[in-house]
Amino acid sequence: MNAKRPACAAPALETPAPAASQTYSYSDLPREESASTALAEEVALAIAYNGISQAVMLVTPTDLEDFIVGFSLGSGIIEDATDIYDLQLTGAGSAQYAQVTIANRAFWNLKQQRRQLAGTSGCGLCGVEAVEQALPDLQVLAGAPLPPIEWLDGLRQRIGAFQPLGQHCGAVHAAVFMNASGELLLGREDIGRHNALDKLIGGLIRQKISTAGGLAIVTSRCSLELIQKVLRAGIQTLVSLSAPTGLAVQWARRHNLNLIHLPQKSAPRVYSPAMENQA
């Protein structure tokens, strides 16, 4: 690995930040002076697979194709991007619809999952049988060396170039990919931390960007669901700007995932089999 601090590639912005934001007026207290500010927008996206409704997600209305591909893979609905045969987006305003055609094998697996679901909530799955889906049996990664510490130097500041919406109005999370040369290549934003990572994974797949030797960076706290998404995507290292949960660390170690927490004012904290092997 090249230990030099890598240059930050200029992000390719497919959608200007204002497209996902609107200006709203407000009044200051207690003087009640009027002003205006830009706020991030969100829409309801209803996703159906082979004509059967599966989920309604609140998302930032950018990179929706990336989100659907990443959501389908990260949720275990498909095993590979080739399982998606067609993707059609319709709707306008705050109501958007996605019709996704998937392979018969993937659709059969999805129907089996649906029979076991008692319901869903904002915090995850509920119902006794659904626990098995919240804690799925995922493939253990082959394991990878830790990235050079130089790659993490100034990372909080450098990923700002991939957060145009966040810089414009705040209120959104970001997920960014760094390749095997330490170059920041791709970033995605969303009001939902899971959604941002889904968009990033979908973008990597749709743009045919190799994840070998690279790492994903998330600006949000790192919980189990994010670990599961990067495991399914085959990404070997995850860097989180906020602390991981205990269960996230347990799963990272069990599945040979390099998990690195990048605190704001202290050295990177490594929760990884790679670190233990080097000890």
TrEMBL record:
Q: Name one GO cellular component term.
A: cytoplasm
Query: Can you tell me which residues form the catalytic site?
Result: 123
Query: Known Pfam families for this protein?
Result: FdhD-NarQ
A GO BP entry is:
Mo-molybdopterin cofactor biosynthetic process
The terms under GO molecular function for this entry are: sulfur carrier activity; sulfurtransferase activity
Give the matching InterPro entries. Cytidine_deaminase-like, FdhD
Organism superkingdom: Bacteria
Keywords linked to the UniProt accession: Cytoplasm, Molybdenum cofactor biosynthesis
Intracellular or extracellular location(s) = Cytoplasm
Cited PANTHER family: FORMATE DEHYDROGENASE (PTHR30592), SULFUR CARRIER PROTEIN FDHD (PTHR30592:SF1)
Tell me the function of this protein.
Answer: Required for formate dehydrogenase (FDH) activity. Acts as a sulfur carrier protein that transfers sulfur from IscS to the molybdenum cofactor prior to its insertion into FDH.
The record's comment on protein family reads:
Belongs to the FdhD family.
* UniProt-listed NCBIfam families: fdhD_narQ
Specify the protein name: Sulfur carrier protein FdhD
Identify the species of origin: Pseudomonas fluorescens
Species classification: Bacteria, Pseudomonadati, Pseudomonadota, Gammaproteobacteria, Pseudomonadales
User: Its encoding gene is what?
Assistant: fdhD_2
